[in-house]
Amino acid sequence: MIDYRARFRSNLLIASCGLAVFAVVPLVANSGLMFLAGLVAINVVFGLSWNLLFSGAGLLSFGHAMFFGGGAYAMAVVSLRLPELPFLVGLAVGAGCGALIALIFGFIALRRASGVYFAVLTLAFSELVHILITKTTFLGRNDGLVGVPRPEIDLGLFRLDLTSATAYYYFIIVAMAAAAFALWCFQNSPAGRLIQAIKQDSVRTAFLGTSVFAWQLTAFVLSGAIAAFCGAVMVPFTQIASPEIAYWTVSTQPILFTLLGGAGNFWGPAVGAILFGAIDYGTRAMHGLSEITVGTLLLVVVLVIPGGLLGFVRHRRKKTRGTAKASTAEDTGARP
Amino acid sequence: MTSILEARGIQKSYGAVRVLENVDFDLQDGEAHVVIGPNGAGKTTLFRCLSGETRVNGGQIKFAGQDVTALTGAQRVKLGIGRTFQVARIFPDMSAFENLIIAIETRERNDKGLRFTFGYIAPRQQVVDEAERLVVELGLEGAVDDVAGTLSHGDKKRLELAMSLALSPRLLMLDEPTAGMSPSDRAEAVRLIAQVRKGYGLSLLLTEHDMEVVFGLATRLTVLHHGEIIASGEPAEVRSDSRVREVYLGQH
Amino acid sequence: MYDIGMTVFNGLAWAMATFLVAAGLTLIFGILHILNFAHGGFFMIGAYVSYSIMMAFGGSLPLWLYLVGAMASGIVVGLLGWAVDKLVFRRLRDVEDAYSLIATYALLLVCGGAVQLTWGLNYMGVMPPAALNTVVFVGDMFMPTFTIFIILSGIVAYIGLEFFISKTRTGRLIRVVAADPWMAQLLGLNVKKIYLITVIFSFAMAGAAGGLLMPNQSLSPELGGIFLLQAFGVVILGGMGSIRGAFYAALLLGLIESFGTYFFPQYPGIFFLLALAVILLLKPEGIMGKGQTA
Prior knowledge:
heterotrimer, A: mainly alpha, two-stranded antiparallel ribbon, 13 helices, 3% strand, B: alpha/beta, 4-stranded antiparallel β-sheet
C-alpha cells in the first residue's frame, strides 16, 4: 500500500524548503542575481510542465518554445495594446493561448505520430510559430514587443504594487509555486495516474475503456498551458517579448533541466533548472564554455546515469542503506 | 437463452492473406465458449476482430443487440466486453495495487463521467476497498505491493484478470489464459476462472490450447480451421465430430 | 515563364543543398536508427574548417582550393565521426529512442560550444570561388553558376550514394545490417565495424557538405540549426533511412517552399514546414514507405 498522505507531506516539505531559499535571495543577493533567480524560478516550472509530458505521458516534445513564446507574446500584447484589461486577465489569456496552440497542434501530431516522429513534428510546429512571429508586424517582427510594464494589481480592498523588480520577483515566486502545486496535484490525481498508465501500456488502457488520444491530448494541453503561463509571467519581469523566446533552442531548455535533474523524479526538472542557472552564471565570461559544459553533462547523464542527478543520489543512498526499495513506492509520486 | 455476441460473415485479411473467411459466430448469454483450432487457424485474429483490437474487412458484429462493428476496442469495453491478452498486459512500473486502482477508477469514469478525475489526490476509500476485495478474491495478497513487472507469470495473468473484472464486464474474453503455465498452475487457473464466472455471472469467450482446460471450462466449443468454422456445439458432440478428429484431435 | 523557371530553379537549389546535408543524416537514421541532431553541428564544423583552410591560404578562393577544402573538411569530420561512434553512438544501441535523440542533441550543444570557443561569435562570410562566381543566362533567366554547381553536386552525390549502396560490397553489407542486424551478426558479419563505417561515412558527408555550402552563407554558431530542420524534414518525409526517399522528399519540399515563397514572399521558410506537417498527417510512414535502405 502506498501512503499517499506521507507522499503529500514529504513533497510539501521539499517545496517549502525550495520556496524559502528563493524567498531569501533578494535579501542576500544583488539585483543581478535576483534577476537570475527569478528566471530560474520560471524555468523550474517550465521544466516541470515539460516533464509532465515526458515522464508523465511518455511524449517527447521538442516544441515547448511555441507555448512559452505564445504565452509571452499574448501577455505582451494584452499589456501594451489593451492596457485597460487587468493584469491577471493577461496571465489567463497567456495560459489560454498556450492551451489553444497545444490543442491545435496536439490534435494533428497525436493522431498519427509517436516517438521520434512526434518530436520532429513538434519541432516543426514550433519553428512555424517562431517564423510567423518574426514576420508579423502586429507582434513587432524581429524586434519583438518592448517596454512591457510591470503591473499594479487591484484586489478591491488594496492595491498590490508590483512595479519594482523586487516586488515582481516575489510575485513570480508565488505564481510559480501555485503552478507547481497544480502540476503536482494533476500528476497525482486519477487523471495523472491514467496518463502514466497510457505511457506504460497504451493497449491495456484502451482495453480498460479509455480513449488514449483524448487523454494524451489533455496532457499536452495542460503542459502547453502551464508552459505558456511561465512565458506570460516572465514578460513583465524582463519587460520584453522577443522572437528568441519562441526559437527552438528554448524548446530544448526544459529537456536539459529534466535530464540533468532526473526525469524519474517530480522535482528533477527543478534541480536541473537551478543547476543549469548556476552553470550558465559560472561560465558567463567565456562564450561556448556553457554549451560545452552542459552538453557534456547531458551526455554523461544519458549514457551513464539515466536517472539524472536525483536518480544518482537516490541510487547511492539505496546502495549505502542496502535496501532494494520498489521504485513505485518512491515518495515523490513520479516515475521514470 | 439469448445471443449476447453475434458475428455474421466476418472477413479479415492481412495484405493478400485471408485469415478469416465468412465466419459466423454466436455466443449465448452465460455460456463459457471456447474457440480451439490448430496454430494459424485464425483464433487470435477472430479474437482481435471481436474485441475491436482490429477492424474487420467485412461482416457485422453485434453485442447485446447493438451493432459494434465500427466501434473501437475502448468503446466496446464501455459496453461491457472485457478482455485479457495472451501475454498479460499490465502497467509494469506500477505496483499491482496501483494497477487495480487505475482499472477501478477508469470504470468509475466510464460510468459517472469526470467527477472524480481531477483534484482528488489519493484514491478514494471506496476505490481502495474495492481493490482490496479484488486482491483477496483473486489471491493476490502476496503480490499487492510488488512492482507489477516483476510478478511471476501466473500472478501477472491473475492481476490482468482482476483488472478486467474491475470493469464489471458482461462478457469476458480470455486469450490463452493458461499459456505458459505449469500443470498445477493450470488447474488453479481453471478453478479461478470457473469461480469468477459463477461469482460475476459472466459470459466467457476463450481461446485455449490445453485440452484439460478446454474440457474443464467449456459449455460450448467451436473449432476453427483455416479461417473457417468446421464444428460448433456441446464439447462432447464436438469431440466425436469426425471432421474435427481428422483435422485437430487427430494430430495428437 | 520567367517566374516559373526561376521558382523551379530556386526550388532545386533548396532541395539539393538540403539533400547534401540530409544524405548523411538519413544513412545513420536508416542503419543505426538514431536521428542525429548533432549532424547539423558537424556540418557546421565542416564549414568552419573549410573557412580556416581558405584563410590559411590568404583568403582568396580558387576553385581547386575550394574543392580540396571541402574534401579536407570531410576527412576531418569523418575522423570526428570515428570518435563519436566509439564514445557515444556505440553506447546508444540499447537506449530508448527519446534518450538517444536527447544524447545527440547534447552532442550538438558541444559542437556549438566548440565552434564558439574556436572561431568566436562573429558572423563570417566567404564569396564563392571566382570560377563559380558568374552568372549564366538561359533565355532571360539569370542563374548563378555557384547555385548550378550546388544543384549538380546534389545530383552527383545522390547518384554516387545509390551506386555505393546498391553496387559495392560495403554498400551491400550495410544494407544487410540495416535490414536485420541480428541475422547479420549470426552470419558472422562484423556489425560493429559496419556501423563504424556508416558513421564515418555519414560524418564525412556532413563535413564535405559544410565545405561545399560554406560560400554565400554567413558562418555563425547558429548555422547548424538552420540546415538541420530542413534536413530533418527531408529525412522524416523520405521514410526510414531511404536515400532515394530523401532525394525525392528534398525535391518535393524544395519546390513547395519555393512556390510558396513566390506567392507569399513575406513568409519564407514556413511552406516546407506546413507541407511536412500535412504530408506526415496523411502518410505518417513517409512518402517511400517503411524500411527501405537504398
